């Protein structure tokens, strides 16, 4: 089983879905990712910010 990292474009989509108050399940289905992946991503920063999440990801790489 291979793992693919969330790309910056997906982070922007996650941020926009959050601003629209979309559910975790909805976001996961739209991005074809598991709910746990989206949940982990949303925990990177609150409120979710795509740029800040990407900076956090880059710092941990």
Automatic annotation (TrEMBL):
Family annotation (InterPro entries): IS30-like_HTH
Listed Pfam families: HTH_38
Top-level taxonomic group: Bacteria
Transposase IS30-like HTH domain residues: 2-44
Protein name: Helix-turn-helix domain-containing protein
Lineage: Bacteria, Bacillati, Bacillota, Bacilli, Bacillales
